[in-house]
Structures are given as structure tokens and as C-alpha cells.
Design a protein that fits this description.
By secondary structure, the protein is an alpha+beta fold. It contains 11 helices and 7 strands. The structure holds flavin-adenine dinucleotide.
Length: about 280
């Protein structure tokens, strides 16, 4: 196994996944798949490929125990078009290689983000960084119209400044953060899963979450077994505090027989689960 590909990812290459009105996520290229993780992890043994079941067990073990470097052997490259306010959150993830469209060099297109009326909400009362109830439909339509009106004025002025031959790098100052930008984004799988953990979370803003869903779909196509493990241990798994563990121990101590060998994905996971409750 020298050059590893994923059939599913091959079929998705270069097919942009539409996100909101004007945005997309496109898988430009990728290097490696689940097999690359296994290959790197086994290099020390020179043991060659094992059965699919054993490979899955190894990938799950590595992810569960934070043996992260084999996941860095898989690399994905995306082309993304998203509003600037989404891109600002996106680029906070520092472990990527990025190249963004230059508004000093190019004239930005007249594409702006306006939420669907059903996605326009009031400020959340219990989460300072979130949304509450949906606006009533009349108010929502009014808000969407006002946003469109600001965008029209801003873009008109942008074009006017360009017509006066004002430098592009200066003219762009009048454009709001709802305008779209584009960038190439390359990341290894370890860092990408970290990005997805943070940006698929319900606490992340809805607009970047929509993009993260598209990135997740493509990532799953590149490395399905690793993604399944990530989903089990990170996305849908939970960490418990010492106090919470003591409480869980108390709750299951009368019902320990139900923890049988078939209740978890692999035997080692059953062993590890029981070890957490040693002494029951
Ligand atoms: C729901 C949500 C709300 C947020 N709100 C805000 C906000 O209000 N204001 C704001 O500024 N940001 C905010 N952020 C951004 C957040 O603080 C992180 O900058 C962003 O999520 C990137 O995470 P990261 O640093 O783990 O990722 P990466 O930059 O990809 O880094 C990956 C990992 O590498 C290591 N690393 C990278 N660089 C360093 C370094 N310099 N020093 C030490 N370790 C490093 C860390 O272990 C880090 O976890 C928010 C993020 C989320 C998900």
C-alpha cells in the first residue's frame, strides 16, 4: 500500500457542497485514508495490513487514547466560500495552511449573507453568545429587507469608489462582514477533527456550524473509520468529573450484570469501561 485512496472521496472531489445562499465547501484534494493511519501506527512493528476488523479496533484504540500522530498522516484540502464573519471564526484555528482571496487585488462579488427569515432570532436571554426565540415573521422579513438595503448601499458605494479609481485595498473598507470571501484551507486529520469538535458543537454559531457539517461530510468520506471513532468518543461521548463518576458508580452498582461483553464496540472497550468503576 503506497498510494492510498478512498473511493467515496474520489467521487466527491471537485463537487462543491452548497452552504447557505452563496457559499460552498469543495474538497480539492486529499492525501491518505483510514489505511494511512493504520500504516503509520504499525510502522514500528513492520506488521503489514491486518483484517478490516483489527484495523478498525486499532483506529478506535488510537483515538480513544489520544495517540494522535497517526491521524496527522491524512491531509485534506478544501476550497471554501463563506461570509467574512464566518471566515473570521474559521481562521482562529491556527493549525491550518490558508490562502485567501485578496480584496487588494480582486474586486469582490456582490454576494452578501442574509439569514432565512426563520433563522432570525432575538438575543438569547441565558447565553450572551447565542440566539433565543425566532422573530415573528413580519419582523423577520423587515430585518432581512433592512440587511439587503445596507448591502445594496455598501456595494453601490464600493463600485462608485472603484469608478473613481480609488485603490481596491481602500475601497473595500466600505463593505460589511456579510460579504463573501474565498480561501483554500489545508489541514491534517488530527487538527481537522479538533476544528469539527468545536464548530459542530451547538454552542458554535449556526452559520459556521452549517459549513462544519459540509466539512464533516467530506471528512467522513476520506476516513470513515476514523470519523466513526471521532463521532463515538468525541462528538457524542462525554467526559465526567470525579464527582459525577462517583454518582454514576453508585447508580450502576446494583445493575452491573447489564454491562455485558456485547454492549460496547470492542472487548477492550468493555474492559476499559469496567476499569473505570473498579471496586463495584
Ligand atoms: C463557541 C466558541 C466561542 C468562541 N468565542 C470566542 C470569543 O468570544 N473571542 C475569541 O477571541 N475567540 C473565541 N473563540 C475562538 C477560540 O477561543 C479558539 O481560538 C478557536 O476555537 C480555535 O481553537 P484552538 O486554539 O483550540 O485551535 P487551533 O488554533 O487550531 O489550535 C489547535 C491546538 O493547538 C494548540 N495551540 C495552537 N496555538 C497555540 C498557542 N499559541 N499556545 C498554546 N497552544 C496552542 C492548542 O492545544 C490548540 O487547542 C470561540 C470559539 C468557539 C468554538
Amino acid at each position: 500500500l503506497v498510494h492510498i485512496i478512498s473511493e467515496e472521496a474520489e467521487n466527491l472531489l471537485d463537487n462543491p457542497i452548497q452552504v447557505d445562499q452563496h457559499g460552498f465547501v469543495r474538497l480539492v484534494d486529499y492525501m491518505g485514508s483510514d489505511q494511512s493511519i493504520v500504516q503509520a501506527a504499525r510502522v514500528s512493528y513492520g506488521a503489514g495490513t491486518k483484517s478490516v476488523r483489527e484495523d478498525r479496533g486499532l483506529i478506535r484504540y488510537l483515538l480513544r487514547h489520544s495517540h494522535t500522530t497517526p491521524f496527522e498522516m491524512v491531509v485534506l484540502k478544501f476550497h471554501i466560500k463563506c461570509p467574512i464573519f464566518v471566515a473570521r471564526q474559521w481562521v482562529r484555528h491556527r493549525t491550518a495552511s490558508i490562502n485567501e482571496e485578496s480584496a487588494r487585488y480582486s474586486i469582490l462579488s456582490n454576494d452578501f449573507h442574509i439569514p432565512e427569515p426563520t433563522e432570525l432570532n432575538v438575543q438569547s436571554s441565558d447565553n450572551k453568545q447565542g440566539r433565543g426565540e425566532a422573530l415573528d415573521i413580519v419582523t423577520a422579513i423587515d430585518v432581512a429587507n433592512r440587511m439587503a438595503s445596507v448591502y445594496d448601499t455598501a456595494y453601490e458605494q464600493y463600485e462608485y469608489l472603484l469608478s473613481l479609481d480609488v485603490a481596491r485595498e481602500t475601497a473595500r473598507e466600505v463593505l460589511p462582514v456579510g460579504i463573501y470571501t474565498q480561501f483554500y484551507w489545508q489541514m491534517n486529520l488530527h487538527n481537522l477533527l479538533h476544528f469539527l469538535h468545536l464548530r459542530l458543537d451547538p454552542h458554535a454559531q449556526k452559520e459556521i456550524r452549517d459549513y462544519a457539517e459540509a466539512v464533516a461530510y467530506l471528512t467522513k468520506a476520506v476516513a470513515p473509520v476514523a470519523y466513526e471513532a471521532f463521532n463515538d468518543y468525541v462528538l457524542t461521548g462525554r467526559r465526567f468529573s470525579g464527582e459525577e463518576m462517583a454518582l454514576i458508580k453508585l447508580l450502576i452498582s446494583n445493575d452491573i450484570e447489564t454491562v455485558n461483553e456485547h454492549s460496547l464496540s470492542t472487548k477492550s472497550e468493555v474492559r476499559e469501561f469496567l476499569a473505570k468503576f473498579e471496586g463495584i
